[in-house]
């Protein structure tokens, strides 16, 4: 009977959160598709050069949201309600401060950032415009991420899913309107993306009238901020690594295959990020259950939820890879408006090789969140940083020199495989009793 209850709660939280994350990730996929149709390969290149900053913003937001929400659920499991609400207040204040820090370079240094990322010619101006608008909306992205995490942990996973989907669908609709009927170009694409978290927060707003979340009247307290940040580090590292890998791969591919190679990588990388959102959603879905159970010291629930998550991650990985291989040509063709045969060849090859990483990435993402959800941030941080920085950066540089573009594609699967071995070792040496 207990396992049936755990299973029902597991699927309630994870299914709704996965759906929400799929919708949220469609920010970038919608931009990729509409920009490819409206602005061609130059637009795709500009988008891919600017996207790392979206990952940085998301990373900070998820660090504060997931870290704060994890602490919030553990405290509630221990009946420490006032401390839990204090964590909620601190998380929102930190998100607002971080958002302002992103706005400053966006307004003042967007052209210099575009040059630093490799933008040149027509691509430079498009990249600068995307960065300027994206960074101006940073406070909205950060606050939305924090609110989504806390609403989910406040026993409202369906509302969190609805808000994520509502924001994402509005992004898709506005993308089309701004790029095609209004002919606003890349400014229209990024404006649609920036408005999406605003709409998401509007959907969340009624929860604060009927839910238990409320702000505590107090100033920013640094005590406990480090703990909150450390618990959210796996989410931060996951997003930051996506951004840094995009920058690194863009620079490597520019030297190997030029702007067209970056456009081909842009197609593969953005689809990869959408699929990776399945695993991120799965990890975020189990977090409230694991944190609450750990606060109650219900280790049976903790282990059962983790086991279910690994099975779901394995099924998703197999299903996604099979679909990517079977439908490789039509998937890439949808983003190849000019029917460029070289872009098609580069991206199809990338789908076959790069997506092998999913067989290990799901396990790694879920395991990193699992560790942090039980107040074990060091192990979660280690898994995240191995796949995010320590391994993929040297592997990409070395393997690209030996095998060219194939080396670039294969560096991701090799990184995830080695990280998975390390994660298994961490699990065997950890004590969860």
Gyration radius, to the nearest Å? 21 Å
The low-confidence runs, each spanning 5 or more residues with pLDDT under 50, are: none
How many individual domains? Answer: 1
**Beta fraction:** under 5%
Extended strand count: 0
Count the helices. How many? 17
Structural class: mainly alpha
Question: Would you mind describing this structure in some detail?
Answer:
- The protein is mainly α and 433 residues long.
- It has one domain.
- 87% of the residues lie in helices and 0% in strands.
- The protein contains 17 helices and no strands.
- α1 runs antiparallel to α9 and α10 packs antiparallel against α11.
- It is globular.
- The protein starts with a helix and ends with a helix.
- The mean pLDDT is 84.
What's the structural blueprint in terms of helices and strands?
Layout: H1 2-77, H2 81-108, H3 110-116, H4 121-136, H5 138-153, H6 157-179, H7 185-204, H8 207-210, H9 225-231, H10 233-296, H11 299-326, H12 328-333, H13 341-354, H14 358-373, H15 377-390, H16 392-403, H17 405-429
Please provide a brief summary of the model.
By secondary structure, the chain is mainly α. It contains 17 helices and no strands.
Q: What attributes characterize this protein structure?
A:
single chain, 433 residues, mainly alpha, 17 helices, globular
